[in-house]
Design brief:
Layout (H helix, E strand, L loop, with lengths): L18 E9 L6 E9 L8 H19 L1 E3 L2 E3 L1 H5 L5 H17 L8 H18 L4 H9 L1 H25 L26 E10 L2 E9 L24
Antiparallel strand pairs: 1-2, 3-4, 5-6
Helix pairs in contact: 1-3, 1-6, 3-4, 3-6, 4-5, 4-6
Length: 242
């Protein structure tokens, strides 16, 4: 059946929520031969996300890694869930609480999570809990299933789609240009990492002969949409649904 077909999102025990593999070429100084070695690095955060979304994703991936893949036991990755899960009842309760905390953290992304994504999260948590209730065998299957890693990858996939939508809005000029008038085309937009809110210039309002200064600040969402070093701030329009 199609629903059970293996994909990069549902492979048992093979998808790391925090690290990704990449290949590097190494040349021997003596023989001159070239060998290819596989190394690991933290997973690349999808482009086009606000700083808040990036932080939430990194936090969820890091926690999922600790819960599901912290230790290497006989060549297989096992996390704290698998270790504590050996204890009857206590291990199951510990696993559910940690999974629900991970779910709660994922809700902190801008705009929250769609109901369909929340349903996928909760389904994995429920299934993981039910599997853990099976004596002895259930703990081994639970370690293989890695519900938290699956949920971290579901969040990553959702934010990838969200980031692509943000980049498309920039290319179509649906997100306002920078205040310096610089073009917001995808070829020019760089990685935006500004942390300070943009400040609106002070204006004087005359009222019955007295002058008062009104200062206002706004903190627009910041999107990372490329690797070019140029930096731009995009202010969220009041009438624009991002």
């Amino acid at each position: 059946m199609k629903v059970f077909r293996e994909t990069q999102w549902n492979k048992f025990g093979t998808e790391d929520p925090y690290y990704e593999e990449y290949e590097v070429e190494q040349h021997s100084m003596f023989s001159g031969a070239t060998t290819i070695k596989t190394k690991k690095r933290p997973r690349t955060v999808p482009q086009g996300l606000s700083q808040n979304d990036e932080n939430v994703l990194k936090q969820v991936m890091r926690r999922a890694y600790h819960l599901d893949m912290q230790f290497n036991i006989f060549g297989y990755r096992v996390g704290w869930n698998g270790v504590v899960g050996i204890i009857p009842v206590v291990g199951d309760i510990f696993g559910v609480i940690c999974s629900l905390m991970l779910f709660k953290s994922s809700l902190d992304v801008d705009g929250g999570l769609p109901l369909i994504v929340q349903a996928k999260f909760l389904f994995n948590i429920l299934l993981d809990f039910l599997i853990g209730l099976i004596p002895i065998l259930g703990n081994f299957v639970e370690v293989m299933y890695k519900a938290n890693s699956r949920n971290a990858l579901i969040l990553e996939k959702h934010l990838e789609e969200k980031g692509r939508a943000n980049i498309l809005k920039v290319s179509l000029n649906l997100i306002p240009q920078a205040q310096d008038g610089t073009s917001s085309s995808l070829t020019d937009v760089g990685s935006v990492k500004s942390k300070s809110p943009s400040t609106v210039k002070t204006r004087n309002v005359a009222r019955r002969g007295s002058t008062s200064s009104i200062n206002s600040t706004s903190s627009p969402p910041i999107y990372s949409v490329g690797k070019d070093p140029e930096r731009f701030n995009y202010a969220k329009s009041r009438n624009l649904d991002l």
